[in-house]
């Protein structure tokens, strides 16, 4: 194994503290050198807990550190593009939280900057690295359910009423890239794109909006070539639901309500035939999917493999998210042009 990749963290977000920083510090492929925070006092505990030696105020000092080779960006959505561009310009590889950007236009700028810099830019879709997700894709590619026809994906959770009422909640601020579609609907769009192996031709959408203008609840339908469709649901005002199902001509694959964030516990999927009301449960051993993502990123950064979440796919996902948002606002179906740059 080559030497570990040296990381810097931009921000003290919950996802960083609970999931990604623990994965970084537990992996032999990574060393976290510095964390930058707008409020260093609030970040002192996480630095002490995980042995991060340097804590700095703000983010520029992280990018100026010559020993930092890669940065993780868990900032609010509207800050993904500007800080990714700055990190790439500073010569750093970038692992950026989903959604990659607030629009396809922003995502294209980020992809172009990564290409120009010769550095890796990858969206942090951690679910792709879990062995259950890998197994689902393998079963589909092996023809176990025949040609996939329908993907149904949902990621909803009940936001605390106090959070719903807070005027500074970034998840409810459209100008900060808020809304359920971008926040958690991006998972479903990514799943449909990957499982069906193509981009949708046309989308429809409907939403319930907060008084801020952000969508609280979103439902979309996607039409794919080859007589395939997908449905995507995302929301802040419904019971916990994070699952996806893929149905084909010969059978179906179903995941329980831990499809995207199963933790490290053992889990499973269900494979059933086309005419079976119940199917066979297939067990999958628990892992830390964030650590698997970190270790894959390290390999991809030094050219040992191609990124499992290629930047062209992230740009394509943003195109679909843009179209779904437009469809919901306009009340019309939106056709995606095949000649759009990705």
The name of the CATH topology of the largest domain is: Dihydrodipicolinate Reductase, domain 2
Number of domains: 2
Q: Using the coordinates above, name the CATH class of the largest domain.
A: Alpha Beta
Order of helices and strands: EHEHEHEHEHEHEHHEEEEEEEHHE
Low-confidence parts lasting 5 or more residues at pLDDT below 50?
none
CATH superfamily of the largest domain: Dihydrodipicolinate Reductase, domain 2
Structure summarized in a few sentences:
This protein is an alpha/beta fold and 342 residues long.
Question: How would you characterize this protein structure?
Answer:
This protein has 342 residues and is an alpha/beta fold. It folds into two domains: 120 residues, 3-Layer(aba) Sandwich (Rossmann fold); 184 residues, 2-Layer Sandwich (Dihydrodipicolinate Reductase, domain 2). The protein is 35% helix and 28% strand. It is built from ten helices and 15 strands. The strands form two sheets. Strands 14-13-12-11-7-10-9-8-15 form a nine-stranded mixed beta sheet. Helix 4 links the parallel strand 4 and strand 5. It is globular. The mean pLDDT is 96.
């Amino acid at each position: 194994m080559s030497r570990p990749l040296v990381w810097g963290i931009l921000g003290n977000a919950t996802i960083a503290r609970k999931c990604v920083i623990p994965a970084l510090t537990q992996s032999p492929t990574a060393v976290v050198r510095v964390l930058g925070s707008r409020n260093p006092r609030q970040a002192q505990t996480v630095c002490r807990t995980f042995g991060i030696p340097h804590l700095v105020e703000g983010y520029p000092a992280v990018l100026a550190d010559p020993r930092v080779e890669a940065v993780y960006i868990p900032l609010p959505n509207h800050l993904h593009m500007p800080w990714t561009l700055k990190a790439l310009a500073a010569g750093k590889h970038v692992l950026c939280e989903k959604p990659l950007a607030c629009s396809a236009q922003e995502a294209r700028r980020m992809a172009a900057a990564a290409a120009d810099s010769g550095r890796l830019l990858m969206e942090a879709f951690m679910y792709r690295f879990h062995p259950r997700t890998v197994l689902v894709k393998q079963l589909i590619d092996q023809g176990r359910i025949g040609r996939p026809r329908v993907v149904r994906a949902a990621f909803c959770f009940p936001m605390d009423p106090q959070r719903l009422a807070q005027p500074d909640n970034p998840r409810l601020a459209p100008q900060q890239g808020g809304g359920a579609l971008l926040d958690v609907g991006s998972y479903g769009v990514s799943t449909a794109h990957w499982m069906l192996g193509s981009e949708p031709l046309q989308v429809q959408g409907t939403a319930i909006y907060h008084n801020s203008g952000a969508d609280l609840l979103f439902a979309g339908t996607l039409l794919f070539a080859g007589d395939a469709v997908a449905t995507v649901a995302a929301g802040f005002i419904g019971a916990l639901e994070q699952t996806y199902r893929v149905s084909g001509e010969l059978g179906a694959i179903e995941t329980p309500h831990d499809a995207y964030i199963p933790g490290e516990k053992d889990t499973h999927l269900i494979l059933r035939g086309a005419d079976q009301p119940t199917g066979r449960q297939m067990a999958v051993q628990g892992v830390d999917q964030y650590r698997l993502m970190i270790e894959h990123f390290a390999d991809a950064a030094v050219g040992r493999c191609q990124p499992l979440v290629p930047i062209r796919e992230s740009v394509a996902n943003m195109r679909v998210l843009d179209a779904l948002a437009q469809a919901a606002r306009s009340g019309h179906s939106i056709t995606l042009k095949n000649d759009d740059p990705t």
